[in-house]
Structure of Hemoglobin-like flavoprotein:
Amino acid sequence: MTTQEISTIKSCWEVIAPNGILVAQKFYKELFESKPEYRRLFTGDMDKQAEKLMMTLGFLMANLDRMSTIKKSVEDLGKLHANHFKVLPEYYPPVKVALISSIAYYMEEDWTQTHHNAWDKLINSVATMMINGANKKGFKWKFWK
Ligand code: HEM
């Protein structure tokens, strides 16, 4: 990520973070409208899930300029997704589309192509790390228990 992209994403986050839960709820609504078959993967409480997603985005925001330091955590999240939540690599693009669209919705008229490009790059990079993590050998289930 370039310095410009990081600052674009951070300034966007400042606007949407106060509406974080609404952004996450809109994201799940859009995702399940576009991909109803993903709904069955989510077995827990969706309000809690929305909170977890926003906390993870907050964690990413705090580390945008040092992503290599959080690589292991993101890879482990990817392992959890693959092994426990049964998420396949091809599920990531529809999730990215729904997430960007929900962020754009709450940015209203302040949303620009520059915002789109920066978020697209960030989510691609996180998804790649998560998928790489899932592909690594030696995953031990008990790590998550
Ligand atoms: C952009 C990348 C993603 C991030 C940052 C992310 C973040 C998270 C987080 C933080 C959790 C909670 C984990 C826990 O409970 O310990 C979670 C759970 C989950 N995620 Fe993701 N996720 C991503 C991509 C995906 C994709 C592509 C799918 C596929 C549809 C997906 C489906 C799920 C499911 C099914 C759960 C478990 C929900 C439940 O417990 O009911 N996620 N995700």
